[in-house]
Amino acid sequence: MKATFDAKKAVAEAELRNEKLARLLGVEEVKNRQLQESLKRMEMKASDLEEENQKLRGAVASVPYVRLPSNVNRDDPDLEPTPENEDENENEKAVYCEVKPMIVDRGVDIHNSSQLPGLNDPEAEKQQQELLIKCISEDLGFSIGRPIAAYLIYRCLIHWKSFEEDRTTVFDRIIQKISAAIEARDNNETLAYWLSNSCTLLLLLQKTLKINGAAALARQRRRASPLKTPQENQAPNHPDRSPVPDGRLVGGLGEVCQVEAKYPALAFKQQLTALLEKVYGIIRHNLKKELSPLLGLCIQAPRTFVVSPRGSGAQGTDLAQQASMAHWQSIIKILTNSLNVLKSNYVPPFLICKLFTQLFSFINVQLFNSLLLRRECCSFSNGEYVKAGLDELEHWCFWLTEEYAGSSWDELKHIRQAVALLILEEKHSKSLKEITDEYCPALSMQQLYRISTMYCDDKYGTLGIPPEVVSSMRTKMVQQGSNSPSTQDDINSFLLDDDFSIPFSIDDIAKLMVHIDIADMDLPPLIQENKGSPHLMP
Description:
Distance between the termini: 100 Å
Largest sheet: 2 strands, antiparallel
Number of helices: 19
Helix content: 55-70%
Shape: flat
């Protein structure tokens, strides 16, 4: 018997080992298939790249020869003669040239490379990088409502062809300088300055950097025939297409075509995007931190608060009401000051609107959650006090205009509807349908139940929501699978959550900010006095 038992045990252990080995074998087979698929994709990409290179070489070979003027420097590295034409007639001096894109600055002769210092001189370029970093370390301000630092950085990167380099340190130095500038997290003036600059610079990069890799080449093959330029593939006189698709910036930089950026440039764009989001988030956090203590005081009416009777001109009552509204006025002062800081730094209205919309959402969450968690706040007189404060915010939104306010007022819908229920007259005669459809459509059944059960009329002593309506609310909650509103587990079902998301994308910015012109901008004195930087001068 013992031998049989041992044999069965050994068989069971062997089967267990076999199952483990089978699972491991299955995992390895999946990994093997994934590796084979990855290898196939890499081979396809390599094949696509080789095919594209062959087509590009054929296109270059088909370019007709260009007769160079006698005054052109033939040692210019942008004009590369090919071996095939070295035996051509020496008298004609004709060579085939590979045409490379060149940025044409206003007032610069592109045939005279001496007027483009730093283009091929590493030492001169290094000196100019030092000059750029020194310039952006200061607050360069704005010219005609546009951030000078952003355009200065962009113009230098274009001139140095940094976007096309496989290795460069200039991007890291720029990011480090901006990161150091925003370390003072409580200085909203500095943060707004870099919010404006980083947003503008990101827009310029979005318009300039072209998608790289096999995906872009595949799209190009689908749109164009192999040996034709983009201009040749367009229908003649097409009203919706420009001669160089998506490749022209308005004014100042001449004809600036898109650049097929290398990895450092694309990484720089990602880092800049992260910086923009970080600066936006810090400003939002700072404003929330300022508002939080005031919101805690605004949810409960002070004893001095008195609602003025309609049509009364009692001066004493008005003064007492103004004194009791001091906390709400402080909130409006914070919002107004932040608006002035953002506008003085020319932050795009689009971003200002997003910021205020999220701030009003925060105000809604704080006030509404406090109302639901504090029984003493669910009273008639307290509803009147909060309603008076919300009226102040509504007037401020109207003054702000829709361009900057956006949907800010709508973000307060939960606290507005809760207050409307608190000060609703003749509650005892209202049905559940009337309450949910007409007065509180945004509130859930749990929220309505909590307000109804905590409400008291401390001013007139009138009746609240009828018991049968409250009972109907509870029945509906049970039907929806909710727990008892008195349990701790149900708190999350009626409280609101704050929004910590970044409410915009690069595409949003690119769509709303499209006009770029730097021809008439004022540059900092350090640049104007430096004779080695003519490419930066308008």
